[in-house]
Design a protein that fits this description.
This protein is mostly beta strands. Helices cover about 5% and strands about 40% of the residues. A 9-stranded antiparallel β-sheet has the order 10-11-12-13-27-23-22-17-20. A 6-stranded antiparallel β-sheet has the order 16-25-24-21-18-19, with no helix packed on it. A 4-stranded antiparallel β-sheet has the order 1-2-3-4, with no helix packed on it.
């Protein structure tokens, strides 16, 4: 069933009630099963069907219920917006030069859309079929400090038996920076009480962005050559850590043309043989090895998370780009449409 085109008046879901879960939708093929929630338009689980696991092995970290998602503030599986990643000092200047002040939620920094980002919102289900589901959210003028009324839609769809697609679009009636992504955490072992640092990672990027102590990019992109951030060839994450002087929570400047869907990364688990290919139309990829999970954070099956249980691979534009005209532009104007496509292929 296809729904009418959403707008600011129609895309208003019912408010969330504590102690209840938002509607969840499952999309299933012979090889994968995706579970998504209207809370944050988030991915709650991605099960792989295998001969060794005919009932499926979940490789995408999810928490026990919606109350846990709201309490933990870890963006697990959610769509981050209006602006994923960090904006320095929670401010930028608009096209007229006027200073726009945003809500700070990481010290003086604006992170992943602010205190009440899109990950905490109830999105409306505006279209649904056996192979796709669309969630829509309206963000009013002044939301978290941003100018303009923004309407965004996130559509998950099955494009092949083992391939999943997420398309995020947005329009705004005033010029505004937009940068949205999926904050899924992956552990291909399916064992979330174990570290993901033994995974093998490859990223198609010749440059990365060193950061300051607030995780804001410093000067210009630097070559990954000779650093702990060189994933041009597949590398075991744990083996790279000793030479990763700032740990792993950084943007990689992807090769290839922005706006073109291309393979940007591959993640694999040598023990199980599972792998995931990642595709995106964006210019950057934020690689974060979880370091804040704890055993008190429980999955639906009651498993407590290992501190390093997940790897987040978040395609996006570069951090702090509203304040960096030398970075890929995050701006959309009235009449323009923001569009970001992410695809994951599993085996």
């Amino acid at each position: 069933m296809n729904a009418a085109k959403p707008n600011a008046e129609t895309a208003q879901p019912a408010p969330r009630k504590k102690g209840t879960n938002a509607p969840r939708i499952r999309l299933t093929t012979s090889q994968i099963r995706l579970t998504v929630s209207a809370l944050g338009a988030r991915m709650c689980a991605l099960d792989l069907y295998e001969d060794s696991a005919p009932n499926g092995t979940n490789i995408a970290i999810g928490l026990s219920d919606d109350d846990a998602y709201m309490a933990q503030d870890s963006y697990i599986g959610a769509i981050c917006g209006r602006y994923a990643n960090r904006i320095e000092n929670s401010r930028y200047r608009d096209e007229s030069g006027a200073e726009i002040r945003l809500v700070a939620n990481e010290g003086a920094t604006h992170l992943h859309g602010g205190i009440d980002g899109f990950d905490k919102r109830m999105w409306a289900i505006t279209a649904q079929s056996e192979r796709s589901v669309s969630f829509t959210l309206t963000s009013p003028d002044g939301d978290q400090g941003y100018r303009g009324t923004l309407v965004t839609t996130a559509t998950y769809s099955i494009v092949d038996e083992n391939r999943l697609r997420l398309e995020i679009t947005a329009t705004c009636d005033q010029t505004c920076p937009v940068n949205m992504t999926s904050h899924a955490y992956w552990n291909l072992t399916g064992k979330f009480d174990q570290t993901a640092s033994n995974h093998i990672l490859q990223i198609d990027a010749d440059q990365w962005l060193p950061v300051d102590d607030k995780l804001i990019p410093l000067d210009k992109p630097k070559s990954v050559n000779g650093t702990g951030y060189d994933f041009r060839n597949p590398q075991r994450v744990a083996d790279m850590l000793p030479n990763a002087t700032q740990g792993f929570d950084h943007n990689f400047c992807l090769n290839g043309g922005r706006g073109t869907l291309r393979q940007i990364a591959t993640l694999s688990d040598p023990d199980s043989g599972r792998w995931m290919k990642l595709f995106s139309t964006e210019a950057g990829l934020q690689f974060y090895l979880a370091q804040h999970f704890a055993s008190e954070m429980k999955t639906e099956s009651g498993i407590g998370l290992h501190q390093n249980a997940g790897i987040a691979l978040e395609p996006q534009t570069y951090p702090n780009s509203p304040n960096r005209p030398d970075f890929p532009s995050p701006w959309i104007k009235p009449g323009e449409t923001y569009r970001h496509v992410i695809e994951w292929e599993f085996s």
